[in-house]
Amino acid sequence: YSMLEAIHSTGMSWVFAIPLAAVIVRCGIVLPFISIPARKVQQRFVLITPVVAGWKAAVRRHVWGTNTDLTPPVMQQIIEGHDKNTKHLLYMRWKCQWWRRAMPFLSVPFFLTLAETIRRMVGSRPGLLGMLAGDADGQTMKSTVGTAVSKVSSGELDTYLDPSLTTEGALWFTDLTAADPTLILPFIVSGITFAHIAYGSRLPSGVKISAASGFLRRGLLVLSLSLWALIMNVPSGILLYWASSTAAAFANALFLDWRLPLGKMIAPAK
Fold first, then answer.
1. Which of 182, 51, 34 shows the shortest CA–CA distance to 108?
2. How many CA atoms, within 13 angstroms, populate the side-chain half-sphere of residue 269?
3. Is residue 233 helix, strand or coil?
4. Which of 93, 103, 201, 216 is most exposed, with minimal Cβ within 10 Å?
5. Using CA atoms, how far apart are residues 28 and 258, in angstroms rounded to an integer?
6. Are 75 and 62 within 8 A, CB to CB?
7. pLDDT tens-digit series, residues 176-197
């Protein structure tokens, strides 16, 4: 909230201050402290993956060659045990454990925190379902001024509420506290989200994924295409932030592929 107010206090309208805040968070905090370290972990993981696969093949040959008296299920258990220990040691040595590979998820709290701040500023309903419901009943900040004034004396007024958001929009969405009646902003958010997911989930040529991973990828793409229908009642200020943040994340992904490419997948050792 303080960052948004500081940007707005320079005389910048909210229609520019909100996207700028999203870019600052994505490029000034998430990129250097989360995205770049996470990409370096991914690079090490790609390099070590063929070694892990080759080691598993070597262990399989060794177990099958030296334990001919054991049943196949028992030998398979021995192989899986060796494989698990080998992965643990290699991933720990190369610093690419599962929790390091999950670093990109650390950016989610930053996105949600700023989204929640903007939600309170535009006077939207609390919670995710509240934001999705948005102004479906036609209620905007302009229609809640009377309620807000009645709460001043009791101290219940949310100090985050900012009436200037009703007039500092632009183009067709001049009121950032109301939903976009043209549905252009929801379609923009849906399109950018689809492009980001499609780009981020692409695979190198020749690489196959499991059926579950393929199903998840297709599901996310379908969900992103239909996202506009779920967010059509969300206030324009939140959608403006959502579009700006997702576009900045997409730009960060392009930058990482340029400066820190993952490289081609190497065939496992035989």
1. 34
2. 11
3. coil
4. 93
5. 18
6. no
7. 888 888 999 999 999 999 999 8
pLDDT tens for 195-230 read: 998 888 776 555 566 677 777 888 888 988 988 888
Supply the Cα-derived Rg of the chain in whole angstroms. 25
* Beta carbons of 132 and 189 less than 8 angstroms apart: no
Domain ranges of the chain: 2-259
CA 209 – CA 52 distance, rounded (Å) = 17
166: exposed, middle or buried (Cβ count in 10 Å: 0-12, 13-18, 19+): buried
Answer whether 117's CB lies under 8 Å from 48's CB.
no
Are the CB atoms for 130 and 124 separated by under 8 Å?
yes
Residues 6+ apart with CB under 8 A from 130: 119, 124
Q: How far is CA 99 from the centre of its chain?
A: 17
N-terminal to C-terminal alpha carbon distance within the chain: 56
Cβ neighbours around 172 below 10 Å, total: 11
What are the φ and ψ backbone dihedral angles of 170, each rounded to 5 degrees? -160, 165
Give the residue from 84, 56, 79 showing the smallest Cα distance to 67. Answer: 79
Statement: the pTM of the whole predicted model exceeds 0.85: no
What the block records as the tokens of 42 is: 């991914």
Bridge partners, 179 (sequence order):
235
Tokens coding 244: 């700006």
- Integer Cα distance of 226 and 190 in angstroms: 7
Q: Name 12's Cβ contacts closer than 8 Å, sequence gap at least 6.
A: 20
Residue showing tokens 């609390």: 126
CA-angle at 250, arms to 23 and 198, nearest 5°: 155
